[in-house]
Amino acid sequence: GETKRQLHERFGEHRRSIQNHHQLIKPTPVSTHFNQPGHSIDHLLLTPLELIHSKRDSVRKAREAHLINKAMTLEPLGINRRDEQN
């Protein structure tokens, strides 16, 4: 997913959502996935794909939508739940 914040902050949120999944009022797609049988936080891996230098949110969101489409990670094929193009 995209973020305009520091990457370590966003990744930390994902880690905490996995660790505290059963305490969350609204579990996240990431926490749900990594709390399924056969998965664990030990399987979580960060792979940065692109650094966007533009300050415009629309540019960042358009690139995310492009990568989601290219990798076919929108539900039901993947973990992404919304299409940023729409």
Flag low-confidence runs.
none
Q: Rounded to an integer, what's the Rg over CA atoms? A: 14 Å
Largest sheet, described in full? none
N-to-C SSE string, H for helix and E for strand: HHH
Helix content: 25-40%
Percent range for β-strand residues: under 5%
Q: What's the N-to-C terminus distance? A: 16 Å
Secondary-structure-derived class: mainly alpha
Task: Give the oligomeric state of the chains in this entry, treating copies of one chain as homo and distinct chains as hetero.
Answer: single chain
**Using DSSP, what is the number of strands?**
0
The gross shape turns out to be globular
Please provide a written account of the structure.
It is built from 3 helices and no strands. By secondary structure, it is mainly alpha-helical. The mean pLDDT is 91.
Task: Compose a concise summary of this entry.
With 86 residues, this protein is mainly α. The chain has three helices and no strands.
Blueprint (SSEs and pairs):
Layout: H1 7-19, H2 29-34, H3 57-71
Keyword list:
40% helix; 86 residues; single chain; 0% strand; 3 helices; mainly alpha
